[in-house]
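Lecture notes, unit on protein representations.

Consider one protein chain, 336 amino acids long.
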Amino acid sequence: MLSRTADCLYWMSRYNERAENTARMLDVAYQTSLMPHPNSSMEENWRKILNVSLLESLFESKYSEYTRENVLEFMISDPDNPSSIVTCLNAARVNARIIRGKIPSEVWETQNLTYLNVQKFLPNTPDDDPSAFFEWVKYRCHLFHGVVIGTMLVNESFKFLEMGTYLERADNTARILKAKYQVHQAGQQQTMGSTGMSQSQSSTSNLNPKNSNEIFDFYHWVSLLRSVSAFEIYRQTYADQITPERIVDLLVFNPLLPRSLTKCINSILSLLGDLKAHQSRDIEHLVSKLKSELDYSDVDDVFSEGLDNFIQRFLEKINHIADEFSNSYLIPLSVS
């Protein structure tokens, strides 16, 4: 397969996955913002969304305040933001158009129609409820994946699409988990500061909603699970109260959860085996090492190291793997 074709398939899939994950993250952030809490805390929540996507500098060059309206506009439709939903859907369509003759007509029509209709579903004003738009984006991205599975041969083209999906999904799940945990930690520190409690007196594992802070904690973790479509799965798996330890166990180590880090890494390694070439050995080695780290770690190891440090190491490794994959199989990043 030509590198240009593989590159377009890969990035078409990545941009669709990125648009969906951005919609998920913003929808949960918006729903959380409707809960009563201090303005300073809300501003920090919106800031974390941009920080975890490394977009703070770009945002601050265009906006003066981290308000809900500004962040939503920036992340939904700002043409200067390479990760905004509209920008991602446009980029996915551009890649699909380049290889239009290489993909089933249903895949092209689904992708093209999504972009052509996006303007109809955008919120009309910054004050409008964006939830319907986010649901539409998630639905269209799900439809794209369903059409791909239902119409494409399971050949190299399909494998490059899947590779883009799982690399993007692993990155986004890790970033969402990191952002939500940082917000939770900031809330815990504010609470301890205002009450004079020590860290040993405040347990992050007891989230039984007995007071206002615990109620906020409870809905905070529920929002995290909903952002990766894992709330019902959590209840099926644990049938008990929601704790950070169990959330990490589910989102990092559960190999059956479609968006868990372990599931993504296992799928990436399997796909590399199907795309085996003389240049794939080094990439397989990188992925195998990361898989081994996950296989031989557990929740206690993660919290002993610090969840922030663990996720940051994972992000560095998964992005290095993505770069090496691009340089080996696709158009090298230096010339794309």
